[in-house]
Structure formats: structure tokens, C-alpha cells
Amino acid sequence: MAAVCGQxxxxxxxxxxxxxxxxxxxxxxxxxxxxxxxxxxxxxLAPGEIFLVEIEDKELGWCGHxxxxxxxxxxxxxxxxxxxxxxDLVSMGQSWIFAITRNHNRVxxxxxxxxxxxxxxxxxxxxxxxxxxxxENIRIPRDKLVGRSRPGRFSxxxxxxxxxxxxxxxxxxxxxxxxxxxxxQETADxxxxxxxxxxxxxxxxxxxxxxxxxxxxxxxxxxxxxxxQVEYGxxxxxxxxxxxxxxxIVHRMAIDWLDLPELLKHLCKYE
Length: 271
Description:
- By secondary structure, this protein is of the alpha+beta class.
- The chain is 17% helix and 28% strand.
- It contains 6 helices and 13 strands.
- The strands form 3 sheets. It has a 7-stranded antiparallel beta sheet, with no helix packed on it. Strands 3-12-5-6 form a 4-stranded antiparallel beta sheet, covered by helices on one side.
């Protein structure tokens, strides 16, 4: 399976009591307290399809961060959206949700060997040069998977930190995704992707007979997230032009020096 055909991702209209979804259905903001922030994908995920969000805003004073995973519960069938994804939604069964951490809640197998760190086992050369992230037999364009800093004097330094995934996984502008990989016999493994890096299988043997929805819990210190749309298959002409321009500059602020239309400069700096 080289890639999947993407759909336009949105949040479901059913969500936690303290969450506000914007008109586009792509931004979720917790408007008060620290809980009741559960959101679902509007549609079930296809095999190999990633539901990717960027942390847009954080709130000081709370302990805990974003939680993410999958559920086979149709949001429309819930009597009420639970206050917490952990443990409330998980305790209802058929939900696989984890707090986002550096060394993710990885399920180990006999083939993993002694070095259990996904970071240590990554081929750094291919990480920076391969245009795709390979998760078993799934291939996902890497372009949108990695967080990017706001354009500024030191943005090129921060961008390198996102690319190497050395910042805290729940830092502002980090991009975190969830997906599942079919394993046969109507089961699948769930993978969490942090800034373009596969954290390994977080849950194995997930039944796929029922549709699986993405779950995003905008919890505690995480205040707001928005969905990043991922392009599958061949990149668009717009994406290819942007990548070509970015490849030949020192850092994003240098785009201002180019003789380009302002709209194109904006696209190159922010996307």
C-alpha cells in the first residue's frame, strides 16, 4: 500500500462541553476549565490515513497535555461525551487513547531488540532527505507532518528542532497524528506520529470490523489545535513550487527579499 486517497479532514459536530469548533470545522479550542475537551474526526479514518493536528495554543497553570488515539464508538451513538478520554472513554471499551509523550506508549514485540527507542533507531540521513514517511507498508508525504515555527529571525533554527523532533512533543506548533495499519484478520496496529516521526505501534490487534474514528482530547495545558490537511499521491503544482523556492533559501525570512508576489511569499513562509 503506497499511499491512500485523502479526504478533507474535519472535527465532528459532537464534542466535549468545553470545546468550540470553528466554522470550517478544522480548529478546536477549549474555552474553559481543563477537561471536557474531547473531539472526534467527522468521518472514520481509512486504513493508512493520518489524522494530523497542530498544537496552536497552550494554557499555563494546568498539568497534562494533549491526548490522542482511536475509537470505534460512533460519536452520534454516545449518550454523552465523556469528561475525560483517560480513563472515561477508554473504560467504555473499544477505544485506544494515550497521553502524548516523547517515548510513546509503545507496544513491544520480540523483534524490537534491545534498543527500544524510535529516535535512536531512525536513519537520520533518510529522515532529512526522504520525501515520505514509511510506516510499515504505508507511505505518507512528509511535507506536512513536521511542525514549523512562526517566521522570524531564528525560525530556521527552530525549524531544525522540529525536524529532528527534539522539542517537547506537545510544544506549540508541533504536529501530531494518529493512524492505523491493517495487519490482516480484521485487525490493525495504531501508530502515533510526532513531527514526522513514527513512534511505533501504540496498540496492536485493534479490531477493524467497525469504523475507527480519530480522538483528540484538548486537555489541560493544550488549549487549541487545528487540523493539517495531508496531500496523498503526487504533490500539487503549488506544493512543488513552494518546495523548490524553500530549497534555495537560507531561511524563511529570506523569502521577503525575493521578487515574488506577496501571496506567494505568504504561502512559502507559512505552509
